[in-house]
Every structure is written in C-alpha cells, then in structure tokens.
Q: What sequence folds into this?
C-alpha cells in the first residue's frame, strides 16, 4: 500500500508544495474539474495535469473521478455515445500510464452531508449527516452548493429527478452492467484499474435508487466482469455510514479476491443509525476499527494506493469541506504508523 493525497487542482488552497512536505506522500489523486460531464478527457489535458504534478516532484497515480453521464445511468438511447467517450478517456489515461480510476454510479448526486461545518466541543468542525435534516436541502432552484455535486439548472434537475422516479434498483443494475461490459475490457487493455466508489451514504436519498451500498452489491459488481480492472474503492467512511456494513469483512472479502484497487480511510461516529459525524481517523474516536481493517489489507498483500479521507477543520484552517490539509495530514501519519506496526508484526509471524 502506498500513501496518496487528493489535490483539487490550482484552485485548491492546499498546494502541491505543501502536500509534498507530508512524510511518505509521493502520489497525487487528481482530476480535471473543468471538463463537462461526458466529454472526452484528451491526451493533452491529462498530460498537462500530469506535468503540473510532476513539476512539483510528485506522481499522478489516481484519477478521482471521471464522472459518468446521467444518460448512461438512465440507460437512455444515446448512452453508447457517452460510453465511447468514456472509453476514449480511459485509453488517454492509459497513454499516460495513470494506473487507477475511481468513479461512482450514484444517480444525480455524489456524497451528501447535511452540515458541512458541524462544531465540536474542542472548536473543530466536521461534516455531519442527519437523515432528519435531508428534506431541508432545497432542490427546487437547481443543484444546491454542495461539494462534488454536478451543477444543474432548476429545469435540468427537475427533469433528471423525474426520469429516475420510474427507475428501480434492478434497472440501475442493468445499466451499470451494460456500462461495465463495454468499459472494463478497454480499461484492462489500457492498463487502467477501475475502482467503483460506494454510494455515500449507502442508502437511497431524495428517492433516488442507490445500489453500491454493501458487500453483496460490491460482489455483484466484481462478478459482472471478471477482470482485475473491475475493482472497488474500499471507502471505509462511505460503507461504514451504515451500521450493517462490516468493514473488516469487506477488506477481507475483496482483498482476498484482489479486487481492491483503491482505499479511502476515514472514521465515522454514529449518533443514531442514520445520523453520524466524520470523526478523527484513529479507531478510538469512531465506530470503525482501523487497525483490523488495515490488518486485512496487509494480510492480503494490498499494494495499491490509499488516501486519508475527509478530515476535520482544525487550527483555524479554511478550505474545501473535508479536504483541509492539517487533519488529513494528521490522519495520514496515524495510518502510516499503524501500517508500519502491522507489517513489522506480520514479518515476525
Ligand atoms: C468524497 C469522495 C467522492 C468520490 C466520488 C468518486 O469525498 O470520496 O466524491 O470522489 O464519489 O466518484
């Protein structure tokens, strides 16, 4: 396993120069946010991003994400056009030897939180999700200002939400399977490993179907196309938002099959089953046992990328919710410490 750090591009208040000073980080998780959803990521555009990262003395090792056009998720008539574009983007990534692509198949919205700066007693703020607050997010004026959400106008959003009203989970599965059967062979031939990101939170929101929510769903995904390029992002915080998911088991099941292609590590502390905060990374502050999860990754010889996921905002830092420098760096040092101890103990066995 190697440490990576997410970087949002030149607008990110956390610069590549700062990231480079975090011990053990040589690899960047990057993306091109200016490209319209569905359009091809050209060899030149990817090359520029890669060059910028390399100029700072780092490598571009993961793309997170190339978003999937809603027409693909909805299985609309023109999906093949968007899938062709997607395949071309993957080939262009491969041309630059970028080995991992994280993506998701969540209808319309990426991850959802109901409070982006929930205050803690010690003055830090964290991301919070509270199912009871979800209905307060107003969708009538188009996409509200939420990190990672694609911007739609009021009419576009209304049309999308209406289109999904008729869709059940099985139909969404059918559309995902159709996509994977086209895309995975291209990824494999291009030397790119795909890593689906679990739905966050892993249950239906705003009446939209969500299917990548548990071990069974992830297993169905990996079984759809038998290829090392068809893998998962083990995102402990997303899956762990549901108390029904056992993350140690997930690390074991998919580590054993060699289908973990990317790892996001963060902790979650539940107030109720559908209300939680994103707590500091160490096991003692949340409901997830980071040691046991990482032990499984080590036992299955996981050699891929890992990034510390969302942190708190501390020490007066301001920036992208969940993606400040300080707490993610603290989290990463803890995770690296665990990893060193686990591996040294394993070698004594
Ligand atoms: C949240 C992230 C997600 C993730 C996408 C992958 O912080 O983990 O936004 O990047 O779901 O497509």
A:
């Amino acid at each position: 396993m190697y440490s990576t750090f997410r970087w949002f591009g030149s607008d990110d208040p956390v610069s590549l120069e700062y990231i480079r000073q975090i011990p053990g980080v040589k690899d960047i998780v990057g993306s091109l946010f200016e490209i319209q959803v569905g359009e091809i990521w050209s060899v030149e555009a990817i090359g520029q991003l890669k060059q910028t990262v390399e100029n700072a003395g780092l490598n571009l090792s993961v793309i997170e994400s190339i978003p999937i056009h809603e027409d693909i998720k909805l299985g609309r008539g023109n999906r093949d056009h968007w899938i062709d574009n997607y395949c071309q983007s993957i080939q262009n990534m491969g041309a630059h030897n970028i080995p991992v692509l994280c993506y998701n198949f969540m209808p319309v919205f990426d991850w959802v939180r109901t409070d982006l700066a929930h205050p803690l007693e010690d003055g830090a703020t964290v991301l919070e999700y509270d199912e009871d607050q979800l209905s307060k997010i107003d969708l009538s004026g188009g996409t509200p200002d939420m990190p990672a959400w694609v911007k739609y106008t009021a009419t576009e959003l209304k049309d999308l939400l209406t289109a999904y009203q008729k869709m059940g989970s099985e139909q969404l599965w059918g559309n995902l399977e159709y996509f994977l059967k086209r895309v995975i062979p291209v990824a494999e031939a291009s030397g790119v490993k795909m890593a689906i990101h679990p739905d966050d939170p892993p249950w239906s929101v705003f009446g939209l179907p969500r299917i990548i929510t548990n071990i069974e769903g992830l297993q169905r995904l990996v079984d759809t196309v038998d290829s090392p390029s068809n893998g998962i992002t083990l995102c402990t915080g997303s899956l762990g938002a549901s108390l029904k998911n056992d993350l140690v088991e997930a690390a074991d099941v998919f580590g054993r099959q060699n289908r973990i292609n990317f790892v996001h590590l963060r902790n979650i502390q539940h107030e109720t089953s559908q209300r939680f905060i994103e707590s500091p990374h160490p096991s003692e502050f949340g409901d997830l046992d980071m040691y046991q999860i990482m032990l499984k990754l080590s036992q299955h010889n996981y050699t891929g990328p890992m990034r510390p996921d969302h942190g708190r905002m501390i020490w007066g830092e301001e920036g992208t919710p969940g993606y400040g420098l300080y707490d993610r760096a603290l989290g990463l040092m803890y995770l690296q410490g665990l990893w060193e101890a686990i591996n040294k103990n394993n070698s004594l066995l």
Summary: Residues 64-65, 102-104, 110-111, 148, 197, 235, 264, 310, 322 surround D-mannose (CB under 6 Å). Residues 326-348 form the longest helix (23 residues). The CA atoms of residues 70 and 76 lie 9 Å apart. The chain has eleven helices and twelve strands.
